[in-house]
Amino acid sequence: MAEETPGPVGQGDYVVREGDCVSSIAEAAGLHWRTLWEHPGNRELRETRGSPHVLLVGDRLTLPPKQTRVVSVGTGATHRFRVKGRREKFRLRLLDEDRPRAGVDYRLVVDGEELYGTTDGGGWLEHWIAPGAREGRLSVEEDEEYLVDLGALQPAATEAGALARLLNLGYLVPGDEKEPGALALGLKAFQRVQGLKVTGILDAATISALVEDHGS
């Protein structure tokens, strides 16, 4: 159970939908993600959520107007302008009962783009992907395949966000999250491993530890 389930925060005309993150919202609006994230009108959201990658459905953002850049050029000549494509860093860690899966070959497909590599010594894989990407499919070695739901992670202080992190960290088995009492069961297991007071309650210390251990 959670001590308190926080609701949506922020102000502005844009209402966060499922799968949204600051990067995808900024990309659709033709903005750089920092311009959106650091806008004064989004201060409450920024201070509450802490990460531009983890928003709650119903949060609100203020979208600043796009600024027009003026460039002086000579007449009677051809000029070329290059627009930099915006990419987002995607990081994922593979673990086996808390042990990093190092040196594992994988194939990651994101919006039709195929990416290949080998996990590093910490079990991490890292790639640059499109900000608006919604889904990825990860194939590990020859017999493992995982669906990666990009942008769907809810804040750790919510029940859905805590359950997702417990699942990703292996404290719950897929399907268990639908059972009554699953959150308390997973939290107790997590708290025990982390050396926290075992209460089964999603308190501030547990939320902080979940975010740190999960990486977001």
Radius of gyration: 20 Å
What integer is the average pLDDT? 85
Helix/strand order: EHHHEEEEEEEEEHHH
Integer count of domains: 3
Helix- and strand-based class? alpha+beta
**Overall 3D shape:** globular
Pfam families: PG_binding_1
Organism: Pyxidicoccus fallax
InterPro entries: LysM (IPR018392), LysM_dom_sf (IPR036779), Peptidoglycan-bd-like (IPR002477), PGBD-like_sf (IPR036365), PGBDSf (IPR036366)
Domain Peptidoglycan binding-like: 165-210
Structure commentary:
The chain is α+β, with helices and mostly antiparallel strands and 216 residues long. The chain has three domains: 14-61, Membrane-bound Lytic Murein Transglycosylase D, Chain A (Roll), CATH 3.10.350; 88-149; 159-214. 25% of the residues lie in helices and 20% in strands. It is built from six helices and ten strands. The chain has helices at 22-29, 33-37, 43-49, 159-168, 182-194, 204-214; strands spanning 14-15, 60-61, 88-93, 95-96, 99-100, 105-110, 113-118, 124-129, 135-140, 144-149. The strands form four sheets. It has a four-stranded antiparallel sheet, with no helix packed on it. Strands 1-2 form a two-stranded antiparallel ribbon. A two-stranded antiparallel sheet has the order 3-8. A hairpin with a 3-residue loop joins strand 9 (135-140) and strand 10. Helix 4 (159-168) crosses helix 5. The radius of gyration is 20 Å and the shape is globular. This is LysM peptidoglycan-binding domain-containing protein. Residues 165-210 form the Peptidoglycan binding-like domain. InterPro entries: LysM, LysM_dom_sf, Peptidoglycan-bd-like, PGBD-like_sf, PGBDSf. It comes from Pyxidicoccus fallax.
